[in-house]
Amino acid sequence: MNRLLIAGCGDIASRAMPWLVRRFRVLALVRCAESAAHWRALGAQPVRGDLDQPTTLTRLAGLATYVLHAAPPPDRGPGDPRTRNLLAALARGDSPIRSLVYISTTGVYGDCQGDEVDETRPVRAMTARARRRVAAESLLRAFARRQGAALRILRAPGIYAAGRLPLERLQRGDPVLSSDQDVFTNHIHADDLAHAACLALMRGPRCRVYNVCDDSRLSMGDWYDAMADAAGLDRPPRASREVCAQRLSAASLSFMGESRQLENARVKRELRLALAYPDAREGLQEIFNPFRN
């Protein structure tokens, strides 16, 4: 059985495990005993190591020929040393990597002023966190060329699921932009992203980028309205950009500075991804009212 290494053992990788363990011997890179126990219970073999400490990664050389890389870059700095450290460790192995999947972000496109955006759009990252993702993608492409590995980069927008919703913003009554100033936002259910990651390990051209998003075309305000309606909370007040700038954090404001409508035809065509949650409104309703039907 082929061996798969997971780097970035978080929620998305956990959701992928039932599919993965039927097809791979799964090894999970973990930093602590508690995490090791969790992943062992899911069916993985834990491997101790820390992407921020290269000397702990020596065991990764030759350990697996498939890699699911879901670890985010650090919160600061110009590049992604975690990806660099991981790839350096993998490169020391005798067995070349056959397939590598990386979960990136659609933030690499920057502000597209509401345009429709497919994977041919040049990257124009506007935030430091998005620029770190661009750096990671570049490192991975160079590694794949040297190794002859298949590389599929999954660019994900806002990931949602139970426990992954900003309900505290609704509870505080934080404003969202007025309709005339609003931006388009994009979403994907965590289960659909996990499924796409599994399929990308096995399918698609050898070096390919995919927008992994649902079929919704929502403004940010409509997204928060739909969330409030599903959760039984008050809809957020609408306000001008100037008022929002006075009341919201810099991180929240940064998302209001980018607008794009993502195209997802490629991921459906090439990976044959069938979305379980094609409409974000219906996905939200199922989270809060799972037995409504």
For the largest beta sheet, what order do the strands appear in spatially?
Answer: 3-2-1-4-5-7-12
The percentage helix is 25-40%
CATH architecture: 3-Layer(aba) Sandwich
For the largest beta-sheet, the strand count, sense and barrel status come to:
7 strands, parallel
- List the total number of helices: 11
* Class inferred from helices and paired strands: alpha/beta
Uncertain stretches of 5 or more adjacent residues: none
Helix-strand string = EHEHEEHEEHEEHEEEHEEHEHHEHH
Q: CATH topology, what is it called?
A: Rossmann fold
**How many distinct folded domains?**
1
Q: Can you say what the CATH homologous superfamily is?
A: NAD(P)-binding Rossmann-like Domain
Strand content: 15-25%
- Reading off the top of the CATH hierarchy, the class is best stated as Alpha Beta
Q: How many angstroms separate the termini?
A: 41 Å
Summarize model confidence as the mean pLDDT.
95
Backbone shape: globular
For the secondary structure, the number of strands is: 15
